[in-house]
Amino acid sequence: MKRTKATKSTPVKPVAKKADQKVTATTGKTTGVAKKATGTIKKAAAASKKAAPAKTAAAKKAAPAKTVAKKAAPAQAAPKKAVVESHAALVRRARRINRELAEVYPYAHPELDFENPFQLVIATVLSAQTTDLRVNQTTPGLFAKYPTPEDLAAANPEEVEEILRPTGFFRAKTKSVIGLSKALVEDFGGEVPGRLEDLVKLPGVGRKTAFVVLGNAFGRPGITVDTHFGRLVRRWQWTDETDPDKVEAAVGALFPKSEWTMLSHHVIFHGRRICHARKPACGACPIAPLCPAYGEGETDPEKARKLLKYEKGGFPGQRLNPPQSYLDAGGIPAPPLGAG
Question: CB neighbours of 214 closer than 8 A, spacing ≥ 6?
Answer without folding.
Answer: 194, 196, 199, 220, 221, 222
